Amino acid sequence: MQAHEIAVTPPTVRMDDPVSKAIQLMVVNRLPGLVVVDESDHPVAVLPGTQVLRLTIPESYRDDPALVRTVDEIHADLFWHGPGKLTVGDCLPSPVAKPVTVAPDATLLEVATVMATKRSPLIAVVDRGGKLVGAVTLERLLTSLAVAGPND
């Protein structure tokens, strides 16, 4: 099997999109992250959901985990409403790391190796011109590996 055979057509976001849009797209589409594209639909970054989650946690709690235990359950369940006006670009490190990509003809072993090495639960599949043609999620990869037989 090759990457294009297990790739999904993912929703994408741009750097200036609000974080709330990214969260909604990840939830609705059950994705572990999103591909961030430019105006030409070329991937500029892969935004893992864990990075979005990290930024929704108030900085004081990230710096002092013991402080988290002082927050009552009701307010603890609402912490993620804090992103407010943050954009997708705000969630990415500076400088933005090169997006994790593979070619459409990449084998499952190649996809698995890149995914494991880069610790990314989402890999962008790009054509020779660098344009996004799909994405492979960790779930799709593991499912494909689990059901693949010797003749696949």
UniProtKB/TrEMBL annotation:
Molecular functions per Gene Ontology: kinase activity
SMART domains: CBS
Residue ranges constituting the CBS domain according to the UniProt record: 1-65, 93-152
CDD domains per record: CBS_pair_bac
Gene3D superfamilies referenced in this protein's UniProt entry, alphabetically: CBS-domain
Record keywords: CBS domain, Kinase, Transferase
Listed name of the protein: Histidine kinase
